[in-house]
Amino acid sequence: MRSQAMVVAVVFLLVAAAAASGSEDRKLSPFVRRNLVQQQSSRAQVHPARGHYFGKHPRRLADGDCTANPAVCAAGTQCCDGICVDLSSNMNNCGHCRYKCSFSLGCCGGSCVNLQTDSSNCGACGSTCTTAACSMGLCAYAG
Length: 143
Hints:
two-stranded antiparallel sheet, 3 helices
């Protein structure tokens, strides 16, 4: 009896997952879909002053890329390989296009920095340790 209940539950979950897989996008008009993509990509961006360990998400344009017309990129961003990016915080384009910070570093102000030990960018871009050293991304960490 218990195994039958498990089988029914698994089948139910599989049917529910199949019904929910992307059918909504096919019902939307191209205009609505394009604007939805633009809204989602702009929401993914992080405020440049705050930054974060993995850098800012690039903005993908719904109607192609920025290669033919770099002016479509927002202020403070630049077209790199068809994507508008903020060179001051993008880990794959830090300071200039295609300059990638290594995995253990973050991009702050266009430079690759170690957010675990940099007293000017301790744990996050712009987070300054004034009286103690930065250790493990924390000021005055008593490890």
